Amino acid sequence: MRRRDFITRLAASAGTTYAVMQALDLIEKPATAQKSPFQLQRRGGSKSIIILGAGLGGMTCAYELSKVGYQCKILEARERSGGRCWTVRTGDKFTDTLGQTQTIRFDRGLYFNPGPARIPYHHVTIDYCKELGVPLEVIVNLSRQQYIYRENAGSLSGRKVHAREAIADIRGYISELLAKAISKDAIDAPLTVEDKEKMIEFLRTYGGLNPDLFYKGSSRRGYSTYQGAGDAPGVVDDPYDLSALLELGFAGNESFEFGFNQQMTMFEPVGGMDAIAKAFEKQVGRFITYGAVVTEIRKTPDGVQILYKDKSGNVKQETADYCICNIPLSVLKDIPSDFAPDMKEAIASVEYAVTGKSALQFNRRFWEDDEDIFGGITQTDQDITQIWYPSTGYLSQKGVVLGYYNFGSTAEKVGTLAPADRVALSLEQGSKIHPQYNNHFEKGFSLFWSTVPYSIGGWAEYTTDVRTTYYPRLNQPDGNIYLCGEHLSYLTGWMAGAFESARLVSTQIATL
Amino acid sequence: MRRRDFITRLAASAGTTYAVMQALDLIEKPATAQKSPFQLQRRGGSKSIIILGAGLGGMTCAYELSKVGYQCKILEARERSGGRCWTVRTGDKFTDTLGQTQTIRFDRGLYFNPGPARIPYHHVTIDYCKELGVPLEVIVNLSRQQYIYRENAGSLSGRKVHAREAIADIRGYISELLAKAISKDAIDAPLTVEDKEKMIEFLRTYGGLNPDLFYKGSSRRGYSTYQGAGDAPGVVDDPYDLSALLELGFAGNESFEFGFNQQMTMFEPVGGMDAIAKAFEKQVGRFITYGAVVTEIRKTPDGVQILYKDKSGNVKQETADYCICNIPLSVLKDIPSDFAPDMKEAIASVEYAVTGKSALQFNRRFWEDDEDIFGGITQTDQDITQIWYPSTGYLSQKGVVLGYYNFGSTAEKVGTLAPADRVALSLEQGSKIHPQYNNHFEKGFSLFWSTVPYSIGGWAEYTTDVRTTYYPRLNQPDGNIYLCGEHLSYLTGWMAGAFESARLVSTQIATL
Fold first, then answer.
1. What is the dihedral sign for C-alpha B151, B153, B159, B165?
2. Which of A125, B49, B388, B501 could form a disulfide with B488 if both were Cys (CB 3.0 to 4.6 A apart)?
């Protein structure tokens, strides 16, 4: 049973959430208990709630609270729901804060998720997909056929190294070195004789070592000529030099998929990530006012007052007992409000990830046809950083590849280019890895999250200091105003962060 | 470009296959050349070919050779095509060689692949799926949430160890030990100072080490209480003891997915493996006579003569210019024939894998609902050896789990039980890992390949001796009779072995 289920179930019935949370560390996790569905207890009656933002957090609050009788209204600045949970398809238009407009012209049936694109197996996101009937398919977050391609990495520079080659080789060398050190008793660790023997045995298998404990290559790294019928046992090339592999410096690439949020099994909704947003919209769409740009957030003696501009530019207002503010802090900090000074300081303290993506439609799936790559992510030290191959539409004719996905100063550098230039950069750098880019490119799209209206950044990025100093304040209501969203969680950048926050805030309000 | 494409293309135009194969080691593999489709050259005209067995190998021969004008007939002992490429569904009946009959009663829409169940990304199987329009989905061959569950493994015996926990911990300890040995200059290897620094840096990331190069656990092993919103940073448990991990002895479990044929990305056809057989049947079904049990294989002065019993038990005969014999050697060795003595000896020399599987339908996907397991394989030292969770129908109500998949003496032991007892064993042992088995089991099915009529074994298993001594002979025609199948390849046990063999044999015949 998940912590969150305990929290929310107990919190809903037993009072304050924080006390319950503290108690929870004492509760042991049962091995295979059936999870309880999240269910607020009816308590607050028909109080009114104004929710700012129809992203996943805001819609989840409306979904959960309206189920138990709260009167919910949602104001959404965009003309659509979902916020960063977003999929672009042909005909869609996107204009950034600099006024640069792109019209998406992918073929019908093709799409791209500019925001979140993966769902880890252990996230609450999956529970909501089940509850709301969103079909999922596996997103291949690692494919052993994907490349590590570096331009500044010693002797393997400019070489398309398959992940499986580098991985098999480095594990082989690590195992060889350690097994030999152990067998020579050069290890200064409290290992019994039996432990040492078992460790060497482990390393022999783990590394694919020969009887003398040398790593001399292995079919794990693949065949340069494949195995086949008749006289075709396959040819395995010699491993890369250890020095060359160390220069390649791919530890981060390899261990990327060790992370708890990046491990297989990962999912994506069939047909695009916005299937999740649409599923919520189906439940709470009747509460949403689109094109409503919040201009002021005010406290009243017994509730809240929100001013917003509607589609026609007219200023309107809503009042309610409570406000759940799902607006990213990067936007919220510039909205006039009655937040207390310490809350304003906390809101302004959180940095947002600088990140961008591009999408490239090709008229032939050459990565599959020519290179046996099905899903997965090629990693490069070029500005584009990553190339994602689609995990959908296998063996079909066309496909949309993620042409870059970068962060930080690289993203800033690329993001400040005009959209067409970003696409051109994706093509230029990507074509070093896939020369087929030049013959098969059809259409592109790119965005830089720092210039996406009403988002202004990728996701909340907490330094340890900000997490310690300001995060607790952000999690406390200010009067009757509760903040909500991925930024109010330890799962920043994940849709699950928004869901968890929405469940927590909903529980807090429902237990008042 | 793949070796097999070179082989078949060159062989088809340039004469004998073996000479070409030898020459091929001189040809360098282009980085991203477009693959040529396999295409026989029209040459033999309208010679007649009798094919024994409508498995994948036999049907592929008929498909490729009929395209270029050969007259093909296929005799198939079963009432269906596909051989071991097989899917069972409700209403299907299966009777083994001991006369034990099972009627499959899975719910409509649920199914089970008793034979091959996975397709590696680099196999020719995928090319045929593309050519014949067989939709594929990812089969999750590794899920970090799957368990390692051992009953005789020291202090972790009887504990459901998540793969990610064991993997994160052992990589951590390996990295710690090696990094320390290197930093103490205890490694006897030609590493420069710079190499050593880079190696330690690599291990720091690879193992998730702390600044002092100790492994003290990591979120990679998962959280005992998950990260969430508000005051929920997640709780990471201490790692398992290194000694305990070594006793667990899971090197084989972990490195299983390092193998070139087991790496991600892997596929399965949507709706069942027999979609591949059906796709070929659509192409060549008109050539197939079902229920035709071959009783004699004879040479004639200018061709071949085949005697068989038809459905009514009448002996019939077919003559042709050539015979392609796709019958497993385990069956073929007992069919009266005119094979030369050395060929008969070779046929009788090859052992077949002893292996079996069971399938269990549950009325609730508790592995998903309760345990966050989506696909993947739990490994155990019990007789059942493996539990496979379905990689299809995620988040739906019911599912079919593979209850055991074992080999060798364990398979022999389980396989000799009555089918119902094998299912009972799957339940009894599996319920130690998933107590939910007891409440949610509905229907089972099991088979033991040694008692599957017309297969009599899993797949060809070559010892090095047999491969050296007899395999070359099996690959040479005996008169006008050519053997074909997975057993004539280095991809034994894989459908690709049958496809590669069929392409090779077809090429040999077409270039005569």
1. negative
2. B501
Centre a 10 Å sphere on the Cβ of residue A99 and count the other Cβ atoms it contains. Answer: 7
From the candidate CATH numbers 3.40.190.10, 3.40.50.720, 3.90.1150.10, 1.20.1440.240, the one assigned to the domain spanning A151-249: 1.20.1440.240
Q: Do A482 and A323 contact (CB within 8 A), yes or no? A: yes
Inter-chain CB proximity B254 and A206 less than 8 Å: yes
Which residue from B402, B388, B416 is spatially nearest to B357, judged by alpha carbons? Answer: B402
User: Does the ipTM exceed 0.95?
Assistant: no
Range B48-82+287-349+463-510 has CATH code 3.40.190.150: no
Q: Note whether B219 contacts A32, CB cutoff 8 Å.
A: no
Q: How much is the pLDDT for B32? A: 55
Name the residue among B143, B144, B504 with its Cβ closest to that of A229. Answer: B504
Q: Following DSSP, what letter does each residue of A434-481 receive, concatenated?
A: -TTHHHHEEEEEEEEGGGSTTT-SSSEE--HHHHHHTHHHHTS-BTTE
Residue B33: its pLDDT value, please? 62
What is the SS3 assignment for B221? helix
> Distance from B82 to chain A by nearest Cα, in Å?
19
Of A25, A234, A251, the CB nearest to B235: A25
The CATH classification number of B161-249 equals 1.20.1440.240
- DSSP, collapsed to helix, strand or coil, labels residue A406 as strand
Output the CA–CA distances (angstroms, integers) from residue B257 to B141, B253, B454, in the order listed: 7, 8, 31
Q: Which CATH class is domain B93-145+263-272+354-451?
A: alpha beta
pLDDT digits (tens, 9 = 90+) for B404-449: 999 999 999 999 999 999 999 999 999 999 999 999 999 999 999 9
- Sorted by where each begins, the domain ranges of chain B are 1-36, 48-82+287-349+463-510, 93-145+263-272+354-451, 161-249
Q: Does A219 touch chain B (CB under 8 A)?
A: yes
Residues A131-163 pLDDT 10s: 999 999 999 999 999 999 999 999 999 999 999
CB-based contact (8 Å) between A466 and chain B?
no
Residues of B in contact with A505 (CB under 8 A): 229
% of chain B surpassing 70 pLDDT = 93
Measured distance CA(A121)–CA(B373) in Å, rounded: 7
For residue A337, the one-letter residue type is: S
Please give the residue of chain B at the shortest CA–CA distance from A186.
Answer: B186
Residue type, position A12, single letter: A
Distance from CA of A269 to the nearest CA of B (A): 11
The CA-based dihedral angle spanning residues B421, B424, B428, B433, taken in that order and rounded to the nearest 10 degrees: 120
CATH label, A37-82+283-350+461-510, candidates 3.50.50.60, 3.40.50.2300, 1.20.140.10, 2.60.120.430 = 3.50.50.60
B2 contacts A202? CB cut-off 8 A: no
Taking the Cβ of residue B408 and every Cβ of chain A, the question of whether any pair is shorter than 8 Å is answered with no
